[in-house]
Amino acid sequence: MGSFKTLIKTALPAAVLVGGMAIGAVGSVAAPAFAQPAPPPAPVGEVPPAWAPPKPSEFWNGHPVVWFSGWGGRWGVWINGSFISLTSNPVTGGG
Q1: Are 65 and 59 in contact (CB under 8 A)?
Q2: Are residues 28 and 74 in the same domain?
């Protein structure tokens, strides 16, 4: 009888552990995989007005140079959702 109690004390927890691991493995396979959403498209800029200065270049540091009407209008690039100005304000001639 003593060996039966020892068997129950060691085999039962081991069986529960193995069963739990098996259920966890099946659950991880059956769980739906969610992919990261696609990043938003890069801003393409706006149509520059007739008075805009010439475009300084087509690309800067691998990013397309675009016109942005904010701050009086200027040429620059969008990087990580932020606009980096490459020209000064053509109306005031300042930053």
Answers
A1: yes
A2: no
User: Residue 59: what residue type?
Assistant: F
49 and 76 within one domain: yes
Domain total in the chain: 2
Same domain, 30 and 74: no
Instruction: Identify residue 84 by its one-letter amino acid code.
Output: I
User: What does residue 17 show for φ and ψ, rounded to 5 degrees?
Assistant: -65, -45
Contact 76, 85 (CB under 8 A): yes
DSSP letter assigned to residue 87: S
Domain that holds residue 84: 39-95
Backbone angles phi, psi at 89, to 5 degrees: -65, 120
Q: Which residue carries 């969610």 as its tokens?
A: 34
Instruction: Give the whole-number percent of the chain exceeding pLDDT 90.
Output: 23
H or E stretch covering 30? helix 2-30
46-84 per-position pLDDT tens digit: 899 998 899 999 999 999 999 988 888 899 999 988 889
